[in-house]
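Work Package 4 report. The design task specified in the project plan requires that, given a folded chain encoded as structure tokens, an amino acid be chosen for each position. We show below one input record used in the internal validation round.
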């Protein structure tokens, strides 16, 4: 087995259901001991914790002959993030991979979005990814190795309707991943972001009222969450040792490498710009290269395979 995780320890957040569950099971199948973290809350993340989803995944792993422990701490808590990393150290003696998968949704149109809707999503997706990554960083640095995988989204990379909070968080996650890759490369630590396409509780919450929306939802139902796991495990294994600072997408049997922002046009003047010269020269010069207001579904229009 090339992408082997034998002897390694992985922490997977939001691993009680959906994509996270698939990753935890695949990690264990590849030989890793797994800390299965899940708060067990609703999609909004505002109700009481229930660790039973995490424990159910642990039971599946143990019954298959693997090693795993459940953890119910919140990624939104800096102390909680340290507790889940400590669970890996206390139970298995080390930590080798962190998969930041935990998420919540508070979808609403921007002009109707409340501060709490924004803060709650940023706290889980972006701050949560920082919290857990930072908690593991000292161990990764000391041992001279480690792998991060952070879940981003085409809602942030491309755009989506009614998801200003989620889009901002997920594009922030891509930036966080790149910064970690740059800062920790000298310690043998790598960091990548993955945009998963999968039918999960979160996707199931998307409203569908028009025929077009209903058709899109039916297409999304074909996206199997377990299909994300093999790529994530490969990234975390030694086979992914030379892969860092990248943004990928996984959509059933398709794997994407996303572009990253770089300059595509320049305008220069020896006299310096004025508002009028910008309006007269720069806007017309750049206009043909402006990106349209695409949503994710406008870009990924073909049926998943």
């Amino acid at each position: 087995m090339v992408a082997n995780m034998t002897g390694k320890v992985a922490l997977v957040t939001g691993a009680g259901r959906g994509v996270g569950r698939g990753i935890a099971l695949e990690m264990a199948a590849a030989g890793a001991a797994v800390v299965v973290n899940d708060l067990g809350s609703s999609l909004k993340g505002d109700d009481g914790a229930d660790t039973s989803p995490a424990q159910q995944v642990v039971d599946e792993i143990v019954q298959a002959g693997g090693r795993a422990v459940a953890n119910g701490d919140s990624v939104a808590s800096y102390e909680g993030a340290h507790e889940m990393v400590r669970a890996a150290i206390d139970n298995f003696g080390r930590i080798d991979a962190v998969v930041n998968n935990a998420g919540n949704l508070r979808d609403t149109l921007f002009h109707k979005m409340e501060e709490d809707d924004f803060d709650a999503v940023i706290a889980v997706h972006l701050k949560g990814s920082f919290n857990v990554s930072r908690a593991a960083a000292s161990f990764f640095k000391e041992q001279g190795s480690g792998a991060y995988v952070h879940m981003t989204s085409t809602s942030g990379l491309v755009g989506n309707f009614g998801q200003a909070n989620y889009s901002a968080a997920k594009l922030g996650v891509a930036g966080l991943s790149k910064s970690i890759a740059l800062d920790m490369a000298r310690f043998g630590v790598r960091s990548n972001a993955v945009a998963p396409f999968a039918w999960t509780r979160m996707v199931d919450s998307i409203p569908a009222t028009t025929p077009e929306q209903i058709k899109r939802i039916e297409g999304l139902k074909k996206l199997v969450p377990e299909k994300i796991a093999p790529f994530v495990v490969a990234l975390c294994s030694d086979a992914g040792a030379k892969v860092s600072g990248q943004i990928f997408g996984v959509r059933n049997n398709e794997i994407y490498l996303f572009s990253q922002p770089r300059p595509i046009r320049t305008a220069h003047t020896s006299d310096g710009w004025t508002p009028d010269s910008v309006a007269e020269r720069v806007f017309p010069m750049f206009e043909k290269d402006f990106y349209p207001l695409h949503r994710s579904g406008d870009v990924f229009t073909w049926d998943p395979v």
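The CA atoms of residues 25 and 61 lie 6 Å apart. Validation will be extended to a larger panel in the next phase.
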